[in-house]
Automatic annotation (TrEMBL):
Keywords: Hydrolase
Keyword flag Hydrolase: yes
Domain spans labelled AB hydrolase-1: 21-250
Pfam families membership: Abhydrolase_1 (PF00561)
Single GO molecular function: hydrolase activity
Xref: InterPro entries: AB_hydrolase_1 (IPR000073), AB_hydrolase_fold (IPR029058), AB_hydrolase_sf (IPR050266), Epox_hydrolase-like (IPR000639)
Protein name from the UniProt record: Alpha/beta fold hydrolase
Length: 265
């Protein structure tokens, strides 16, 4: 099992193919396992998938479950793998980690950025119209994480997919419940209260924003906000997808990603 030791954690990763390095970052409580439909892209690019600490097949460390630490882990991983000029693909929390990375380290390592289904802030604020839950709802999620992790998993899954078979939902459930409740509480809270509105305009590399239009987990306007406020962004809409267009409409997603890399990166 390939791992890289970074900042006191063993991170699981896979790498396949040659060409422009494309690094995939998964969502909160998920794993790199969900990017299997993108493996065909390894014919033209080097595909690298990575599990954050505490997630998937990476080490379940007791500490370090914040977006700033995940960004530092990413920098250490890229350095250890001698990767530069990468196209970073961030799905959901993966985009938040990418913005946190930009806040700490800038964009020198990036050839391009792909933000999949994420807005810069999830929590409702008076000066932000795209929040998806208030503090009371977040407190309820924190309670579920400690009292009924299985119910929390299914509540998240219900909002993620439009119409996928039971086996896909079961895979999501298996990955979510692989994360220990203590880690779930820590990272779910941290990623939910971070605000990257000031960082989004600092992403000065070509950017592709992917929006699943049949979305219930986020607000479409929040994803459009990213496209509108990133200097070199274009948006790709997936009419039959919810939160996982790379899984729900993989052919369109792969074509959009490959075309973006070829044309703009």
């Amino acid at each position: 099992m390939p791992t890289e030791s970074v900042n006191g954690a063993e991170l699981y990763y896979e790498s396949d193919g040659d060409g422009v390095p494309v690094v995939f970052l998964h969502g909160v409580l998920m794993s790199s396992r969900f990017f299997s439909e993108q493996q065909s892209l390894s014919d033209d690019h080097q595909l690298i998938t990575l599990d954050f600490r505490g997630h998937g097949r990476s080490e379940k460390t007791e500490t370090g479950h914040t977006l700033p630490q995940y960004a530092r882990d990413l920098e250490a991983f890229l350095d250890a793998q001698d990767l530069s000029d990468v196209v970073l693909v961030g799905w959901s929390m993966g985009s938040l980690v990418a913005w946190e990375y930009v806040r700490q380290f800038g964009t020198d390592r990036f050839r391009g950025f792909v933000s999949v289904e994420q807005q810069p802030l999830d929590l409702e604020q008076e000066d932000y119209e795209h929040g998806v839950f208030g503090f009371g709802e977040l407190r309820g999620l924190m309670e579920l994480a400690q009292t009924n992790p299985h119910e929390l998993a299914w509540s998240l899954i219900d909002e993620m997919l439009v119409d996928e078979p039971d086996c896909v939902e079961q895979t999501l459930f298996d990955e979510i419940t692989r994360v220990p409740p203590s880690i779930t509480s820590a990272i779910l809270f941290d990623q939910s209260v971070r605000d990257y509105r000031e960082v989004v305009p600092d992403v000065d590399v070509p950017t592709l924003v992917c929006l699943g239009e049949d979305e219930t987990m986020l607000e479409n306007g929040g994803v459009e906000y990213v496209a509108d406020n990133t200097p070199k962004a274009q948006i790709e809409r997936f009419s039959d997808s919810g939160h996982c267009p790379f899984l729900e409409e993989p052919e369109q997603f792969n074509h959009a990603l490959s075309s973006f890399i070829t044309a703009r990166c």
